[in-house]
Amino acid sequence: MKRPNTALIVDDEPHVRMYLKLILKKIGFKTFIEAKNGQEGIDLYKLRQPDLVLLDVNMPVKEGMEALEEIMQFDPTAVVVVTSSVASRQAVEQSVELGASYYIRKDTPKEDIANQLDTLIDDIWE
Predict the structure, then answer these.
(1) What pTM value is reported for the model?
(2) CB-based burial, 84-100: b 16+ in 10 Å, e otherwise
(3) In the chain, which end has fewer C-beta atoms inside a 10 angstrom radius, N or C?
(4) CATH code for the domain in which residue 52 is found
């Protein structure tokens, strides 16, 4: 099976979107779609249906968990990785209950994020 190459990065901070894009480029992603809030993320997901979504939790307009719920209702097979600067047990459990494939803390070292995403991709696409 071919590896995914299209990612939607949903985060209200431009520098975080850039950082995540660099990590995804390193593991083979070629096409990037960016959204600055949960509602934009939902709209762009429905329009483009990317292979992978990296979704922040705390955002204006619509929170990440609400966006996750709507994306999963639209496409139960969506691969969504929740990214957050907070990793409370409650947040992790809620994201998994709503259908997230994985949860990554943004303060995780770049190499570790790349390795975790690469492993997830191997598990899902190969």
Answers:
(1) 0.93
(2) beebeeebbebbeebbb
(3) N
(4) 3.40.50.2300
